[in-house]
Amino acid sequence: TQVFHGDKLVKEVDIENPAKEQVISGLDYYTPYTVKTHLTYNLGENNEENTETSTQDFQLEYKKIEIKDIDSVELYGKENDRYRRY
Predict the structure, then answer these.
(1) Distance CA 37, CA 69 (A)
(2) Which of 17, 51, 23 is CA-nearest to residue 37?
(3) Whole-angstrom Cα distance, residue 15 to residue 4?
(4) Residue 62: φ, ψ to 5°
(5) Is 42 exposed, middle or buried (0-12, 13-18, 19+ CB in 10 A)?
(6) 39 neighbors 62 (Cβ within 8 angstroms)
(7) Mean pLDDT across the stretch 22-49?
(8) E strands of the chain, at which residues?
(9) What's the CA gap between 60 and 32, in Å, rounded?
(10) pLDDT above 90 as % of the chain
């Protein structure tokens, strides 16, 4: 699987099990991407292989969570990969 931004190849990921969910990290929000998946399979006759290409456009959007009805507020900070309440 290849991820493109325009004509530029951004990421390439090998998918060993297409039944599992795939995570591709390091992509930017609000950037148009195209994912191209190449599938090669054997039809069982004379060791012929066919290749199919699937293309899908997508864009990551930042999701904002708004919390209402707040009972209390506490301040936390991160120190040495652990969170600490102040």
Answers:
(1) 45
(2) 51
(3) 17
(4) -75, 130
(5) exposed
(6) no
(7) 81
(8) 2-5, 8-12, 32-42, 49-59, 76-79, 82-85
(9) 8
(10) 23
